[in-house]
Every structure is written in C-alpha cells, then in structure tokens.
Amino acid sequence: PRPNALSESYWMPFTAARAFREAPMMFVGAEGMHYLESGGRRVLDGMAGLWCVNAGHGHPRITEAIRTAAGQLDFVSSFRMGHPGAFAFAERLTAAAPEGLDHVFFSNSGSEAVDSALKIARAYYRVRGEGGRTKLVGRAKSYHGVGFGGLSVGGIGRHKRDFGPLLPDVYHLPLPYDPARMGFPNGRPAVGADYAESLEALLAVQDPSTVAAVIVEPVTGSGGVYPPPQGYLERLREICTKHGILLIFDEVITGFGRLGTCFASQAFGVTPDLIACAKGLTNGAVPMGATLVSAGIYEAFMAGPPEAVQLFHGYTYSGHPLACAAGLAALEAYEQEGIFANAAAMAEPFAQALHALRDAPHVVDIRTIGILGAIELAPRGGTRGPAVADRCFAAGVLVRAAGDMLVLSPPLILAPAEIDRIAQTIRDALLAEA
Ligand code: PMP
C-alpha cells in the first residue's frame, strides 16, 4: 500500500514538493460514481468526493450551467448589487428547506456558513436588546469547520489543540452515544433521548438568559457517523424553545439528500432556527455555503441594533454567479432525477451490506444512517484505517480513513451492485490485514 495516502496531510498546502512527496491519489477526471486516474483506471468513489458530490461527478446539467454562467457574468458583489441567478437560487433553496426557513445568507464553504450562523444568532439577540445572550453550546465529537467560530463550538480536541485561545464562553454537550447501552440494529438507537437532558443540566449552571445558541450536526459526521437517538433532537428542540435559545443545525453533510430528504431536519421532523449547509449545495462543483434563517431572524439582522447604522457581515464572493448557477442546476438535478428518493431506497441495502461486515476481522462497531456509514476498527494508533483504505484503493475503491475508522458516503446515485462492491472490497481488505 502507498504511504499513508489518505492521511490528514493531504489537507496541507499543495506545494508541488509536498504533494509529490506524500504521493497523494491523483485524479484527472471523474464521472458519475467514479474518479479517473491518468493511466485510465476508474476508481469507485465511496466518499462522494468529500461528502459533497451527491448527484455523481461531472453531472452534465451542472457542468453546462457553470459553463453558461461563466460566459455571462464573471462577478458581481452582494453589497447593494446582485444578479438574477442569486435570487432564483435563493428562492429554489428556501422552497426545498424546512417550513419557515425562508431567507438565506450565502458564503463560500461550510466553515463560513457555520460562522455566519453563530454571528447571526448573537446579532439577533443584540438587536432584541438581549445582548447578554452570547454563550454558545456545541457538542463533543462534532465538526463545524476550521474557522475560529466553528473550531470553538466543534468537539474534536485534536483539531483545536494547537490554535487557542479559541472563543470564550463556549460549552459542550456529550455525544449521545454508548454502544453498550444502545446497539445499532437499524442504525438509529431507540434509547438515548435522555442525553438531551445534558442541556438542561448545563442551563442549571449557566443562566439560560446568557445563552445565544446550541449548534449540533443532526448526525455527527466527520467525528464518526453517530445517528441521533430517537427523541433526542426533539428534546433538544423543546429545551431550546423553552429557554428562548436558538437551535442551529449544521447540515453541511446531511443536507441535500444523505438521509433521503433534502435536509435531515425533514427526515427527523425537527425544525431548527438556522441551518448551515454547503457541500451538496452545489454538488461540490463550485465552492459555496449557505445559512438559512427564519423571517424573524432575518429581519432583526437586517434592521440592526438601535445604536448601529447596520450590522456588517458578508463575503466578497457571497452569491457568486458561478456558485449560484451550479447550485440551481444541482437542486434541479436532485429533484428531477429523484436522487433523494434513490438515497432513501438504497439506505436499507447500504445498511445491510455494511452491517454484514460485523464478523470481519478487526471490526468493533458499525454505524449507518441514510447513505452514511462508519466502520470502527480495533485501535492501532490510527494506522489501521489508512492501511485498510489503501488496500481498498489498490482494489479500485475509494473509502475515507479517519484514524482507525473507515467512513463511507458514496454519491446518492448508487445502485445495489456498487454497494456490494464497496462492502466486498472492504471485507477483502480487512481479511488481508489479518
Ligand atoms: N460542518 C460540517 C458538519 C462539515 O462536515 C464540514 C466539512 N467536512 C464543515 C462544517 C466545514 O465545511 P468546509 O470544509 O466547506 O469549510
């Protein structure tokens, strides 16, 4: 196997020297479920790029929309200017969002969508004369990007360790997960709603009138695919409503069909006050993030606090013409090609194929929901995951390793044969590691 080709070092700057020393997997093209190597080999993409290419790679409709947009208007600022494509996309996006989230702030990534959500939440209370509400609550093992806001509310210690001091007045709830207690027969534990009481416990210590927002991923993604126990998100919603605290869902991974509905909040029947999304927003084809908010939050933010002229927030590239064109085409493709419905139909075969790996060597836990899966391997200092992923890659299947864990989120256009190939390739790789 290649030297740790799937390790986090891949994130480092693309200097030529580094990229070649680390021997990354190099792709020159992509189509549908596959990446293409320069030698012509096709690699089955078990990760949808990085949880983003939900309609498959190189989607003709999206590619064409980007091409057309690039020929029309290269750039226009979102500060007192705009273009029709941004409004058309905002309309389509909010129509697909849960009831009530009908305004959108565009940005360029998941990290920015999250930081925007956190800033908007605080500003909302400032405008309402509740400026004392500044505290933020995140959750253990959650990933909210690499900006200082997202990093601060995020719950993956090793990501944060070397960048402090981070935001003050941030608190974390525990991960609602205990394999011994819950088990994962169908991917979604029936018990564990009571983990939400940790929020009440926190609010018994931290005065609720000092807390602005609670942010959670509906399904913990990068931290290891932990589906929420039944009733847990509902209870978080209740507690936030009771104390007047805003609930933010980070749907950067779960948005755009991973759970068979456009947003996870629709799958779980729990509506947050704000949603941060990115990735599948444009099918990964152009960088973009979006923060969806209710009319009340939007109006407060736009009005600004009494003593200020106007709140300032926004990015140079907010609502970029290429991104809006890609996003609109992606939403049309998702809807017209029944891509979320396919995700819903494939969820059960996907779960069965992965859970069937329970008896394979080194496997200690398997978690699935929708078209998301994690296979936890017996710990070996973080080297087992990359070793197994490298074997899969050698066999032509791309899976992601995160320490001693394999993570799967293939494009939502997957078919049973591809599910079987992914599962069989992982089984063979685990057997070879024995
Ligand atoms: N939130 C979640 C839940 C994510 O999974 C990610 C990216 N993996 C982010 C935020 C950050 O997104 P980006 O990398 O586009 O900044």
UniProtKB/TrEMBL annotation:
Its cofactor is pyridoxal 5'-phosphate. This is Aminotransferase class III-fold pyridoxal phosphate-dependent enzyme. The keyword Transferase applies. It comes from the Bacteria. Keywords: Aminotransferase, Pyridoxal phosphate, Transferase. PROSITE patterns: AA_TRANSFER_CLASS_3 (PS00600). GO terms for molecular function: transaminase activity. The keyword Transferase applies. InterPro entries: Aminotrans_3 (IPR005814), Aminotrans_3_PPA_site (IPR049704). Belongs to the class-III pyridoxal-phosphate-dependent aminotransferase family. CDD domains: OAT_like.
